[in-house]
Amino acid sequence: MLGGGLALAACDRRADAQTPVGQTPVSIPPLRGAAAFPVGVCVQEEQLGDPSLVPLIAAQISQVTPEWEMKMEYIVKDDGSFRFEAPDRIAAFAKANGMRLFGHTLIWYAQVPPAFERLDEKRVKFAAAYRNYILAVAGRYRGQAAGWDVVNEAVAEDGNGWRESLWSKKLGKLQHMVLAFQHAREADPDAVLFLNDYNLENMPRKRATFMKLVEALLKAGAPIGGVGTQTHLAADLAPGEITKALKDLASLGLKVHVSEMDVSLTRSRGVIKDRGRLLAGQARLYAEAAEAFSSLPASQRFAFTHWGLRDKDSWLKRENPSDAPLLFDDAGRPKAAAAAWIGGLS
pTM surpassing 0.70? Predict the structure, then answer.
């Protein structure tokens, strides 16, 4: 199904902010050539018209994830119809540049489209509309999308159980996830299907709950092929935590995707005040992530995705203009963090 119908603006990611460059740029080889696995980045449709960003992505990246325009907030219109103009353009960009496309995301607790909320079940059953949506979206990119975040952020914030959502209330806490994976497999038999979440590195309790959920879904017949760890970190995260998390996740025997990595300077706990020390911590974490991911079995290394390349494009910079969470500065020049990430590859 390529159209039909049944959004919610979870957050507006399209602001802009500028801050001075905080460190001397370095020289690096292209990320995509340095790594033995696909290297990804998120993009927005409007960025594809940026003449300074597009060449940087083309030179550095081998996989593209739509940052928000494959989510319900974009696709599901208030009248229940679907729109695909922006994700289609991103998919075309990936294809034209020889890059893999990664789909993000089919089902997310945070999104409650009005068209689903007011669905007349006497006319269309909720379960049928749910299936139709997944078939329409995942089926549209069948044969191009290498994988999908099928269910996003299902574990509760504190790691105590699973989140409640419109989907869980209508279809069951576990069953709505099982159905999502089954419908995604029906739509695209070849894409790798992921459960994706965040804070898995710095919250062992949440990681344990996440892993138990994966096991429960597999037992219930969900065709999960991989686990995604977003890896949104603060620069003062203790050494070794990324390595522990990736080893634990890999123990499930599935493919692993570092799916949204960035390292915030301003979200640190405040113990470290000096910006130079925070930048050093940021570089250390990028190096550890690259080394830990490289150490996984090759068959489990699905991709390593950075949640943006230039600092000025980051959602974190829009949250706090003094942040600088990515590998390239506002002008697109590689930072020490970029050299550290490449240095961590093995």
Answer: yes
